[in-house]
């Protein structure tokens, strides 16, 4: 019976093949035409208007009030634009290599509000607004591939006075950190990755489909709030300053960056710095089990842990646990 069913299905597909091919061709032509009509010739990211930029910056300033006051604000000029960093003095050993925190896509330094108090007990900390994302960094040159992503961040590290720096990145910030370790590891002392995307596993089909509607600037705010809440496994995002900042950035800023390319197994195996991977076991963005297995199999100097109940918003859900794991990692790095 099962064989007969598959036989009938095969016959139907053979009869329908030509119409299906025609439909596929038509859809492809339509998709290419729409992409051409919507093509934005600008080579770098930009705010859509002064009013939109003002709205984002107001949300950014409000979200920054949840952080301890930085002792230094730095604007580092690179070949790809001016990069905004904040320095927070911490720890007990001034000579210890600091942490540089890299936020996820469409976020910026305020996303680390929950993490800074516990991390500052360990080391001094820099936060950075990623170049080409909504924030206070200003992109001036196209970032077309993974090597460009690594170059601008390497230039930032080389502009800082410390000889070695530990990177700690969440989500896309995790990809950015690992991408630097792959291509430009000179000043990298170690890497901590919080549920990194496109490093050890591909994005889930569901997150790709859900992200399409909110990628349009004309999408209502409720769609963006709903998507942000979904990535955090249903956690509320209204009346949260950092969530308002992220929503404002999604609406106000046009990102013009190359898509992150997942590093190969050989590239990961060649990374010669210690790496701590903290996966969110309940992340909806990818298969965290597959990602953890890949990390264990490929990293020569890697340590991998999974927080079973954590969503992709792992940094805000488990700040003290993350700090404890980071402390152990730094002690052995």
From TrEMBL:
InterPro entries on file: AB_hydrolase_1 (IPR000073), AB_hydrolase_fold (IPR029058), AB_hydrolase_sf (IPR050266)
Ranges where the AB hydrolase-1 domain occurs: 99-324
Keyword Zinc (UniProt): no
Annotated keywords: Hydrolase, Membrane, Transmembrane, Transmembrane helix
Record has DNA-binding as a keyword: no
Matching SUPFAM superfamilies: alpha/beta-Hydrolases (SSF53474)
Species of provenance: Micromonospora endolithica
GO molecular function, one term: monoacylglycerol lipase activity
Pfam families, alphabetized: Abhydrolase_6
Residue stretches spanning the membrane: 20-38
Any one cellular-component term (Gene Ontology): membrane
Record protein name field: Alpha/beta hydrolase
């Amino acid at each position: 019976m099962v064989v007969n069913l598959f036989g009938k299905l095969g016959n139907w597909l053979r009869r329908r093949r030509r119409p299906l091919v025609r439909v596929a061709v038509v859809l492809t032509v339509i998709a290419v035409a729409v992409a051409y009509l919507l093509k934005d010739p600008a080579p770098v990211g930009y705010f859509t208007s002064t009013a939109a930029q003002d709205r984002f910056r107001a949300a950014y300033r409000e979200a920054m009030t949840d952080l301890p006051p930085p002792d230094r604000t730095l604007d580092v000029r690179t070949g790809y634009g001016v990069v905004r960093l904040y320095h927070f003095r911490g720890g007990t050993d001034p000579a210890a290599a600091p942490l540089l925190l890299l936020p996820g896509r469409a976020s910026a330094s305020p996303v680390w509000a929950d993490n800074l108090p516990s991390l500052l007990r360990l080391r001094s900390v820099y936060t950075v607004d990623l170049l080409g994302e909504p924030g206070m960094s200003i992109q001036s040159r196209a970032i077309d591939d993974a090597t460009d992503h690594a170059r601008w961040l390497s230039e930032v590290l080389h502009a800082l006075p410390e000889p070695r720096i530990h990177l700690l990145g969440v989500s896309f910030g995790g990809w950015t950190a690992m991408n630097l370790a792959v291509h430009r590891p000179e000043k990298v002392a170690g890497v901590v990755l919080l549920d990194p995307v496109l490093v050890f596993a591909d994005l889930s089909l569901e997150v790709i489909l859900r992200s399409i509607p909110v990628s349009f600037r004309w999408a209502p705010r409720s769609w963006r709030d709903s998507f942000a809440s979904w990535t955090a496994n249903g956690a509320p995002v209204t009346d949260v300053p950092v969530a308002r900042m992220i929503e404002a950035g999604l609406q106000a800023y046009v990102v013009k960056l190359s898509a992150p390319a997942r590093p190969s197994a050989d590239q990961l195996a060649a990374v010669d710095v210690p790496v701590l991977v903290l996966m969110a076991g309940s992340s909806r963005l990818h298969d965290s089990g597959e990602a953890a297995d890949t990390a264990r199999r490929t990293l020569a100097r890697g340590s991998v842990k999974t927080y079973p109940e954590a969503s992709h918003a792992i940094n805000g859900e488990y700040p003290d646990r993350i700090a404890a794991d980071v402390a152990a990692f730094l002690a052995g790095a």
